[in-house]
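Batch manifest, entry 17 of 40.
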Amino acid sequence: MAKCSGITQAGRACKGIPIGGSQWCFAHHPDHEAARRRHGQRGGKRGGRGRPQAGLVDVKHRLHDLVEDVLEGAVDRSDAAVAGQLLNTYIRATSVELKAKEQLELIERLEALEEAEEARRGRFGQLR
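Output type: structure tokens
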């Protein structure tokens, strides 16, 4: 089986499998440089589903403290109920924002795939 002609950052020969009848794997193919750069820009920034946990941890702590204060009688139940509703609204807004970001990312990925497919068809059309 053929091996990629690329050289790894460690200076060793790449063990990847060449794609599309070329001599390079995806990681070394010059035609895929823009896609690799685009994917690399997101590296480490997204973490899971857009890192929604970071903001929600604070909300969970606030809700816990609110429950404790109500049980101790330090906060009126009606005030706590309103605060709980507002925190729930915050959670819902975070969820909607996350879904919107995911939709935009899916659209970008789909457009990139469509462009790649058009380019592939264009190359095969030129061979005939």
